[in-house]
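Tokens as discussed.
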């Protein structure tokens, strides 16, 4: 589990660091990735930035930010990472196994911007309609929310963090995460793979 999850998470963190708080010329409507297999629909007030996103054909990193002119939306960076076909099989190990991995040194190293487990603390874990939700505290980027779920057989992570130089209240970040999960599930009409066990 540890090796390929590390490969899955790290590119998303690097790309997220490059995205401004407000996207330029992004789209709040559906944008297709992976040859049309997955549709990305951001929550209301946010737009997908196709220019900053990356689609390899096997996986994708989709970046979203506040739409231009949407001053009422809380500034936030939303990163949606799509794994390879069949990658959601890791969820069959159950939420407890996945949660245990992320709080372990290898899991915290996978989450850390600098790759060091001591740089990250997993402050909270929870389940939300089958998705594993983590509150992560990273020395490099501060606190942010991350969800791990399955869509159409692909492992998907969704992260919500504050833009550089801004703050994002914890409750607001969690709300944006939940709204993003809901919009992605609705757009793809696919129930997320549900882990078999609960977490504390």
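Sequence:
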């Amino acid at each position: 589990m540890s090796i390929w999850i590390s490969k899955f998470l790290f590119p998303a963190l690097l790309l997220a660091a490059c995205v401004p708080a407000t996207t330029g010329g992004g789209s709040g409507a559906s944008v297709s990735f992976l040859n049309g297999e997955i549709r990305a629909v951001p929550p209301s007030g946010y737009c997908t930035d196709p220019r900053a996103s990356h689609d390899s054909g096997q996986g994708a990193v989709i970046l979203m930010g506040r739409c231009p002119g949407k001053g009422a939306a809380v500034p936030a960076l939303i990163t949606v990472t799509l794994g390879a076909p069949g990658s959601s099989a890791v969820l069959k190990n159950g939420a407890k196994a996945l949660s245990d991995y992320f709080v372990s040194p290898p899991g915290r190293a996978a989450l850390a911007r600098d790759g060091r487990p001591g740089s990250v603390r997993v402050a909270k874990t929870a389940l939300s309609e089958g998705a594993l939700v983590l509150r992560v505290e990273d020395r490099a980027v501060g606190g942010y929310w991350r969800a791990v779920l399955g869509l159409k057989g692909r492992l998907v992570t969704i992260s919500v963090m504050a833009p550089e130089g801004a703050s994002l209240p914890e409750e607001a970040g969690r709300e944006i995460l939940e709204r993003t999960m809901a919009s992605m599930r609705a757009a793809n009409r696919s129930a997320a793979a549900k882990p078999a066990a609960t977490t504390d």
